[in-house]
Structures are given as structure tokens and as C-alpha cells.
Amino acid sequence: MKISAKDEYGLRVLLSIARYGGDEGSNITKLSEAEGISEAYVAKITRMLRLAGFIKSNRGKKGGYVLSKRPKEIKIAEILHALDGKLFDAEFCGNHTGELSFCTNSTDCSVRSLWRLVQSTIDQVLANVTLADLLEGGPASGINAALRMQSIP
User: Computed over its alpha carbons, how large is the radius of gyration of the chain?
Assistant: First the structure.
């Protein structure tokens, strides 16, 4: 499994907006400088985050991006799904059939079971970590909160 640049930068941009946006917001230039990401990429990420409902933009000279919800209402799972989708979803097997029109293991597939377990475990952890958890104490705080709420095998 790989965490994409879009996932990493999307979380960083959202955290930056939460930390420094205030009532006026953070503009693309400020976000780009704060995170060391090109303005074009920040623009792409902020568009995705805005369309997904995590941020809104304020127009004008002092305008910028602000959170559309409180940090404790924003789940990390929701952010990552909006940015890059899930690692495994129902269409996965149909999209990876090899040279055939259907998967040769479609009725009894141990690989599919593995991916479902991995996705379920990831979803359980990330559904219990919020943007507020990351703001309060970094990743360890959010992960510890998720582990307290779930019994991960």
C-alpha cells in the first residue's frame, strides 16, 4: 500500500488551514509557502477539498480558505477517501481481471478477502481519528485515540 502525494499534501494543507486560517482564511500562496508545495498543486488540492465540503473559500482582498466544519467533525478517513479513494472497493476485482473478462478466482478468492480485511482495518482506525486529534498532539495522539476506541487485531 502506498500513501500518495495527494493524500499527504491534502492532509498537510487541511491542517495548515485549520491552524492558521482563522476567520479570514489562508490563500493558496500562504499555503504553498507554509507547506513547500507548488501553488498549482495547492490549488488542485484545495479544489478537491472544497468540492468534498471540508473547506470553503472567502473572496476578496483578505479572502482565503477556511474549514467548513469544526476539526473534531472531520474524520481522516473521509479526507483520504475524498482525495484518493479507498485502497480496495467493490469494483477492484472487476478492474483487475487480467486478460480475461472476469477474474478466474471470482467465486473463492483469498486475495480479495485479504484486501477487504486490510481496508476494513484501515477504515476502523481512520474513522476514529479526526483533524482535531492531529491538531492537538500530532499523529501519535490521533492514533492512540483510535486504538483506545477499537480493538485492532
Answer: 18
The Cα–Cα gap between 150 and 153 comes to 9
Residue 29 · residue 23 · CB < 8 Å:
no
Q: 57 forms bridges with which residues in the sheet?
A: 65
pLDDT digits (tens, 9 = 90+) for 67-115: 999 999 999 999 999 998 766 566 655 555 455 555 555 556 667 778 7
d(CA 46, CA 8): 13
- Of 88, 92, 77, 69, which Cα lies nearest the Cα of 127? 77
Q: Give the helix/strand (H/E) hosting 65.
A: strand 64-67
Which pLDDT score is estimated for 107? 59
Distances (CA, A) of 140 to 3, 67, 134, 146: 18, 23, 8, 10
For residue 42, give the C-alpha cell. Answer: 495547492
Count of residues in the chain: 153
C-alpha cell at 65: 480558505
Q: pTM to 2 decimals? A: 0.76
Is pLDDT larger for residue 14 or for residue 100? 14
% of the chain surpassing 90 pLDDT: 42
Look up the CATH number of domain 5-67.
1.10.10.10
Q: Please give the grid coordinates belonging to residue 18.
A: 485549520
